[in-house]
Amino acid sequence: MEPSSSLPTEKTAPRRSFLAAAGSILIGGLITLTPLVTGIGFFLDPLLRRRAPFKGGDADGFLAVTNLSDLPEDGTPLRFVLRADKVDAWNEFKDQSIGTVYLRKLPGNQIVAFNDTCPHLGCKVDYQEDSKTFLCPCHASAFELDGKPMNKIPPRRLDTLESKTDPDGKVWIKYQDFQCGVEKKGAV
Amino acid sequence: MRRREEGSRLMNSILNWLDHRTGYRTLLHEALNEPIPGGAKWKYVWGSTLTFVFAVQVITGFFLWSAYSPSTLTAWESVYYIQNVMSYGWLVRGIHHFAAQAMMILLGLHFMQVIIAGAYRAPREVNFWLGLVLMQIVLGLSLTGYLLPWDQKGYYATKVATNIVGVTPVIGPQLQQIAQGGTSYGHHTLTRFFALHAGVFPALLVGFLALHIYVFRRHGITVSKSDETKPAGSFWPDQVLMDAVACLGVLATILFFTVWKGAELTGPADSSEAYSAARPEWYFLFLFRFLKIEAVDELGLAFGALYVPGAIMGVIALMPFIGHWKLGHRFNIAFTFALLAGASFLTAIALKEDAADKNYQAAVKAAEFEGHRAAELAKEFGIPPTGALSLLKEDARIQGPKLFARHCASCHRYNGHNGLEQVRMKEVEENGHKTKVEEPATAADIGRFGSREWIKEVLTNYHATFESLKNAGEKGGKFLDGEMAGWVKENADTLKKSENADSLKSLVEFLVAQGGRKELQPFDPALVATGKEIFKTGKLASGSFTTNCSDCHALKPADGSESLGDGAGPGYPTLTGYASHQWLTDFVKNPAHDSFYGSDHNLMPAFESKLSDQDLKQLIDWMVGDYFRSK
Predict the structure, then answer these.
(1) Which residues of B are less than 8 Å from A17 in CB distance?
(2) Chain B residue with minimal CA distance to A29?
């Protein structure tokens, strides 16, 4: 076990030694990276796979909310709960509340639907009867009846949702959530 | 050129800066420049491969942890989700699953190498014992990990282990309850096992592994006498390369099994369902078989499962002292090989017995199917908050065969088996020897009941269809000599004539259409119409029946047309909706009803009060093929 005994080996075979070192590093890297990279891929599953947050609605994903006749004629917004089968990873919960919206009926039976999530940082806005505005309880974002911001806090208007009215007078909404805190409205 | 020089100078100054503050160069030198007398050797790789596989387990384990949910309602469910839905989940779980098994093999090889090389002798005794502690921790990891998917296989295998803990003298029941988190398995069994598996054991393993490697480095590698005098090689890079190549081989093997077999997931754990495919994982099969030896069994569970393994571990722990004696080292080697041979022998017996046991094979197949079915249902319907088990409990495809085996198979068969692809056996005495023989059926094999083949068989070969009734005593004999049997005897030859092939096909089509079963559709309308005429008039393409069907059997056609006859009364089964869900339900509820066999002829018990409505529905759903099928 004298240290001197290792010297001749090093001198006589430097090339072999270099190959062994390179091979060790190469193989060592490969075998470590294999489980690591696989695991990182697994961890990035939320980015790699789209998941529908709920099941239900018609072929285009619209959910029936209320009757046109149940909305006030003067355009006052009313809050509605949307119900569908909620999907959470492996679970499916039947007939759950999956989100809330504000609906307004405009002249000519036109429907305006707002996702009531504040585009600032995601709290729920509340309609204030006295001031006829939507107000966010978290950071005081305020919006007019048509969704226009009334101060500089929110980055954009309240998010509108697609809606349609069927021949029976039922109002359908395509529910979506949007990225908070950015100027551009984009579905998440 | 100057640029490159500058670059390397900068790199050097950064490394110098780092070395001043951390001393990493000395550390690296210490770690890598271990001299190896006699040079690097393949037989020295096992410890490194074990360390590598442990690292793989830590990495994959962390990622699995990020998606696993330990509770009885979510464990199987989250593992199903990892395995079948999440990106690369099957790969991460597969590596973790097979690496755990690789660790067992490598542990065995490392141990053997230590014993053969005599690396347990002075001054390395303490390190040997540290190794034994590590072995126990790995066994603990394996045991706790096996339960976590909460599938039938892991559940029942682990139950055996905790019940063994329960027979420990004096404190057994208390130990068992601490392990289980209560008197029975539940949420807390999982939370405890998970805390041990992902927290306590890995932390202990890291600590003891550090000590093990530290003490190992203190004494250096154990080399043979002849190697001591040879020039020494160095750990870096020669031995490291060999270690790396060995690790690569291990990883390749793990990946091969992951891709080829994949990590198994049987059906969700069900404490109310006997699991006849219960076996421990292969590396514990020897212990399982050992406990089944009659002489061992008679000495009590504690003897076989605790004292004997304990004594063996005791001898192993004493090996450093035994090795002091003359011949001690040889004894240790012999003892190790004897253990290996004994374990291999018992494993071989267990495997051979299982391979010969058809009912065990059927149970394994059924367990695999249940896992597959649960995953299929979960994918289609999502898992309700009551857990995946409720998907199986409400599935006719799973429950039907079980109900058949429990309630019907004592008389009937289903395509030759009991519904679960098992064969009913009974013990008989033959020349003073007790042997097991297949139990004869006493009623018809109804695996194809209501199908075209079934109807054709009844019409042309009645005796063969109901042959088993000859084992059913006097009433069974009467059945075989009854009017229908007589009718078939008289008319089978006419029906089987080649000119009448279409007539027979039509009559069969008409009858099968009465049941309207989805799986037998579509029905040929032209054939059905012809068949209806034959049923009514008995006129075939060539010749006619001695007695018309409608003379004896009442039948109101499924097409809503006029009744073809009122039947000849009790004992002449009504064929309205023959073999449909409703017909079968009514029949099973009370076969002695006047519209079926009537109380004079009937042999079959009424199940009206024996089966709950849900059970009856599931049984019939399964028989008529009314359950979810994936595309």
Answers:
(1) 237-238
(2) B244
Q: What is the DSSP code (8-state) at residue A178?
A: B
Q: Hey, is the C-beta of A55 within 8 angstroms of any chain B C-beta?
A: yes
Q: Do B237 and A17 touch (CB under 8 A)?
A: yes
Q: What is the DSSP string of B173-242?
A: HHHHHHHHTSSS-SHHHHHHHHHIIIIIHHHHHHHHHHHHHHHHHHH-----HHHHTSPEEEIIIIIHHH
Q: Which residues of B touch A36 (CB under 8 A)?
A: 59
Q: Is any Cβ of chain B less than 8 angstroms from the Cβ of A81?
A: no
How far apart, in Å, are the Cα atoms of B258 and each of B248, B251, B264, B385?
A: 15, 10, 10, 31
B254 and B180 housed in the same domain: yes
Report how many domains make up chain B: 4
Residue of B nearest to A86 (CA): B382
- Chain B residues within an 8 Å CB radius of A92: 381-384
Is B77 in contact with A27 (Cβ distance < 8 A)? Answer: no
Same-domain status, B219 and B104 = yes
Check whether residue B1 and residue B94 sit in a common domain. no
Asked if B87 and A90 come within 8 Å (Cβ–Cβ), the reply is no
Q: What is the pLDDT of residues B59-110, one digit of tens each?
A: 999 999 999 999 999 999 999 999 999 999 999 999 999 999 999 999 999 9
Is residue A12 less than 8 Å (CB to CB) from chain B?
A: no
CA–CA distance, B508 with B559 (Å, rounded to integer): 16
> Closest residue of A to B229, CA-based?
A1
What is the rounded distance in angstroms from the CA atom of residue A90 to the CA atom of residue B85?
9
CB-CB: which of B62, B220, B384 is closest to A92?
Answer: B384
Regarding whether B133 and B186 lie in a shared domain, the answer is yes
| Calpha distance B60→B82 (Å, rounded) | 12
Pairwise CB contact (< 8 Å): A31 & B91: no
> Within a domain: residue B136?
yes
Q: Which of A90, A91, A92, A96 to mutate to test the interface with B (most CBs of B within 10 A)?
A: A90
CA B160 to chain centre: 16
Q: Report if residue B622 sits inside a domain.
A: no
Distance (Å) from the C-alpha of residue B558 to the closest C-alpha of chain A?
35
Q: pLDDT tens-digit profile of B577-620?
A: 999 999 999 999 999 999 999 888 899 999 999 999 999 999 99
Of A24, A41, A89, the CB nearest to B237: A24
Structural domain boundaries in chain A: 3-47, 54-174
Length of chain B: 631
* Domain enclosing residue B13, as ranges: 1-32
Mean pLDDT of B339-368: 94
Stated pTM of the model: 0.90
Chain A residues within 8 A of B86 when measuring between CB atoms: 42, 45, 49
| Lookup result for tokens 């393993």 | B205
Torsion of CA B399, B400, B402, B406, to 10 degrees: 130
Look over chain B and give the mean of its residue pLDDT values, rounded to a whole number. 94
- Which contacts of B415-420 are long-range, i.e. CB under 8 A and separated by 24 or more positions? B415/B445, B415/B447, B415/B448, B416/B445, B416/B447, B417/B362, B420/B362, B420/B363, B420/B366
A5 CB within 8 Å of a chain B CB: yes
Would B423 be classed as within a structural domain? Answer: no
Instruction: Tell me the CA distances in angstroms from B364 to B258, B290, B357, B393, one per residue in order.
Output: 20, 21, 11, 19
Residues B41, B9 share a domain = no
Number of neighbours of residue A174 by Cβ within 10 angstroms: 16
Which residues have C-beta within 8 Å of that of residue B114, sequence separation ≥ 6?
B120, B128, B131, B222
Superfamily name and number for A54-174: Rieske [2Fe-2S] iron-sulphur domain (2.102.10.10)
| B285, B247: one domain | no
Please list every residue in chain A whose beta carbon sits closer than 8 Å to the beta carbon of residue B52.
31
Asked if A3 is an interface residue toward chain B (Cβ–Cβ < 8 A), one would say yes
Contact present, A154 and A143 (Cβ < 8 Å): yes
